[in-house]
Amino acid sequence: MRSPSLFLASALALTFMVPAQTPGSGSATETPPSAANPAEAGKPDGAAPEPKGEPKDEPKPTLKQMFAKFHPTEGTAKIGTMAEAKLPEGWLFLAGEDGRRFLRELGNRPGPATLGVAIPPDFEDSDVFAVYSYSDEGHVDDSETPDYSQLLVDMKEAAQAQSEERKKAGLGTVELLGWAEPPHYDKTQHKLFWAEKLKFGDGEGLTLNYNVRVLGRAGHLVVQGVGGMEQLAEVAARNQELLRVTEFVSGQRYEEFNADYDKVATYGIGGLIAGGIAAKAGLFAKLALLLKVALKPILVGLCVIGAGIAKIFTGRKKEPQAPSA
Questions:
Q1: Are strands 207-215 and 114-119 parallel, antiparallel or unpaired?
Q2: pTM of the model as a whole
Q3: Neighbouring-strand partners of residue 186
Q4: What whole-number distance in Å separates Cα of residue 62 and Cα of residue 140?
Q5: Direct distance between the N- and C-terminal alpha carbons of the chain, in angstroms, rounded to an integer
Q6: Contact 213/248 with Cβ under 8 angstroms?
Q7: Percentage of the chain lying above the pLDDT 90 cut
């Protein structure tokens, strides 16, 4: 008869005995694939090997990265030294020379009065933007209430007369077809906006001329919305955003006008809409309008939509938009 101690020793020996290994037995001591090939570590069993040599998709650049060479700013944008715009989230501002360079690369010729360009968050899809400039022609008296219907008739006649002169000079003609959006002036905020439908030469499409004016102590800000006629709703929405957030700084505001020191414009609200030339009685001097109104606020960016914008951003492709009817 075995002693109890011998029996216990035999049982312990059986418990810790390691079985002999055979190839393919799948025991816990078999070398795992990850140990043999570290590159396979962490992959689930049966996973297909990753393709080699294929380029990975690069992350899409942000709007700010797209405009990096124009040094865009966000938040509160300084409009020259006399105003500022507290831009909504996602908007960018190309100030001063950076904005002018952007416009030059689109084929335009901005002057020193151009103070910057505002870029909305949806620019990559819409190509809509706005150009800021300043007119120092003086304080605009807003006491008149123009008859906008009659104003349009006068403006059409003046534009037609000017087109005849342009045609004689071998230049393209411009026809004012009507309001795309009638004028609206807020006397409390001293802010004005309107939009015109224009036709240039024998072109098939129409052109949108969207205008915003913010009146100040001795001049006014001009905000020119740029976009196609078919984009009226988008251009209007973006310019209304800018209208709400753009203000003159302290010392330059409309209500701070001092008649003893400040220059006064020779026109009122009607003349401001028509181009800046108006008689005191509110009727337009047609000859003066013909000679002096160069439609200067019109279309700072006639060639900006489509390919003109695409060429600025390397690698960006965009299908051309069909001309509006």
A1: unpaired
A2: 0.69
A3: 191
A4: 41
A5: 113
A6: no
A7: 48
